[in-house]
Design a protein that fits this description.
Helix content: 40-55%
Shape: globular
CATH class of one domain: Alpha Beta
Oligomer: single chain
Number of helices: 11
Structural class: alpha/beta
Strand order of the largest sheet: 6-7-8-3-9-10
Distance between the termini: 39 Å
CATH superfamily of one domain: P-loop containing nucleotide triphosphate hydrolases
Radius of gyration: 20 Å
CATH topology of one domain: Rossmann fold
Length: about 280
């Protein structure tokens, strides 16, 4: 069996607290998870669970206090400078709010071609690749000459996805990439993620607070609560037959179209919370 593409082992992350001799806050507590090549692992938990901190630790944006983060056989826990830049070609990110991650003064062509040119591609080749990227995420060719503000939220997220794909990465960290979108746009963007994975073989670490969203595209699901992994396994097992009460509460929190069933779920969730 081949080694995982990404291996997070006994990860502990602490942040300092202002004040004389105050101990640091431990946000992640011995987290273990892995992502295989071409796989989607959904990382789900409520706000404050530490799921985004895991993604940031993988990206080198949060400290690794203890444990290791290994990517493609290389320990990347404490990389900086040139080492991190080399790894960033293979690990890209899509953030929650596409507008704040896109330079409002740059055209879409400039946004997408910038990382290609930085990596040594000439301008003509970069322009040609921009056209292919826009086509891949189902945006019109004239999108290249427009500014981010001229697009809807869903279209801006497609631009952000195209930028992440530009470097042909092995892994994309997706940090709540659809939570700011309406439900119909969410579905289209999730389908795009699935389509792109099928075409390119890219792996996703998909971070979300919504278990229903994670279930839609994940092969495996990792449930996080207060910095600890509560459940990690096959997506169908975790979302249909959860073993942990916290996972059951997350599942019951997902909205459904039937008002009577939704009311019953709410009552069941409150009963579980009272027992916790």
């Amino acid at each position: 069996m081949s080694a995982p593409l990404l291996q997070v082992s006994n990860l502990v992350t602490e942040f300092p607290v202002k004040g004389w001799r105050k101990p640091p806050v431990r946000v992640l507590k011995n987290v273990n998870l892995d992502v295989k090549a071409g796989e989607t692992v959904g990382l789900v938990g409520e706000s404050g669970s530490g799921k985004t901190t895991i993604g940031r630790a993988v990206l080198g944006l949060a400290p690794v206090t203890e444990g290791t983060v290994t990517f493609n056989g290389q320990d990347i826990s404490h990389l900086s400078g040139e080492g991190r830049r080399k790894v960033s070609k293979d690990i890209q990110v899509v953030f929650q709010d596409p507008y704040t991650s896109l330079n409002p003064a740059m055209t879409i062509a400039d946004i997408l071609s910038e990382p290609l040119i930085v990596q040594g591609m000439d301008k003509l080749a970069a322009q040609a690749k921009v056209g292919r990227l826009l086509d891949r995420v189902h945006l019109p060719g004239d999108a290249a000459t427009r500014l981010p503000r001229e697009f809807s939220g869903g279209q801006r997220q497609r631009v952000a996805i195209a930028r992440a794909l530009a470097m042909e990465p092995k892994l994309i960290v997706c940090d709540e990439p659809v939570s700011a979108l309406d439900l119909s746009t969410q579905a289209r963007v999730l389908d795009l993620f699935l389509e792109l994975q099928e075409q390119t073989g890219v792996a996703y670490l998909f971070i979300s607070h919504d278990l229903a969203v994670v279930r839609h595209l994940s092969h495996r699901v990792c449930v996080l609560y207060r910095g600890e992994v509560k459940e990690f396994g096959d997506a169908a097992d975790v979302t249909e037959n959860p073993k942990n009460d916290y996972t059951r509460r997350l599942l019951m929190a997902s909205p459904i179209a039937d008002p009577a069933r939704q009311r019953q779920r709410r009552e069941e969730r409150h009963a579980l919370a009272a027992q916790a």
